[in-house]
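Dear colleagues,

I hope this message finds you well. In preparation for our joint manuscript, I am sending the F-box domain-containing protein (Botrytis galanthina) sequence together with its predicted structure, so that both groups work from identical material. I would be grateful if you could confirm receipt.
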Amino acid sequence: MDSMAPELLKHLLSYLPISSLRSCRLVDRTFSIIAFSLLFSHIPHWLDCNKSLQFLISIAHDAFNRPAVIWSPWATIPDVRIDAIWLQIVWKLFKGSDFHAEGRREELTAENFARLSGVVEMSEARLRTAQVCT
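The corresponding structure tokens are as follows:
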């Protein structure tokens, strides 16, 4: 498997049901990385307000496929503690690697996520909303 191109592996794994991808992560490091990106591929798109707006507009104009209710992903969510594991997942999706606090002066929190990641629009409220709704 080491000689197979990662693009080909990703293509093959994309045909598996989501429930099987969790088991694929146990095969080896390559499978784990590819399965992770497939399992959580929807999150960066969901967190992007422009893509969310485009999606809402597209389903609003499609009378046959539109849901009965259109809910905004930016609706107010009550104050919920943002889990460290959720911050690690979102960091890995946006930055492509794990967050390592050893070389940094501070640990990753919802309050400093936008500043440390460079994703300015990733506010604490947006992280909380995504955690609750994902």
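For the figure legend, we might mention the following. The CA atoms of residues 33 and 40 lie 11 Å apart. The chain has two domains: 6-39, 43-133.

With kind regards,
E.M.
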